[in-house]
Amino acid sequence: MSEDEIGALREIDALRARLAKLWTVPAGAKNPEELVVRMRLRLNRDGTLVGSPVVLTAGSSPLYLASRDSALRALNRAQPSTMLQPKHYEAWKEIEITLIRERSSEFYLARAGRRG
Questions:
Q1: Domains in the chain, start-ordered, CATH in brackets?
Q2: Is the pLDDT of residue 104 over 70?
Q3: For residue 31, is it left (φ>0), alpha (ψ between -120 and 50) or beta?
Q4: How far apart are CA 43 and CA 112, in angstroms?
């Protein structure tokens, strides 16, 4: 793996960590799948969103809807994603991010990866 690839992965990890801090989900879910939110993002070189993210998961429960809305708010609050360096733009210009609740008191981003 090249230094540029490693750098791009570190930047995506930093974005993941930022979103994890900003994402809050409702308590009380009996089914953890209600709290999984997967999104596809397209980003500009300056780390701002290109349009709206595409939510890839679906649900209709109040807990899922609250979790999804919180994830979208976290994305908006995280802009611009200044940890993403323009020289690595091709690596992170379009990514998919999955937010998932792991334990009752801890939340984390399960996966963020390049698309394609």
A1: 3-114 (3.30.1150.10)
A2: no
A3: beta
A4: 14
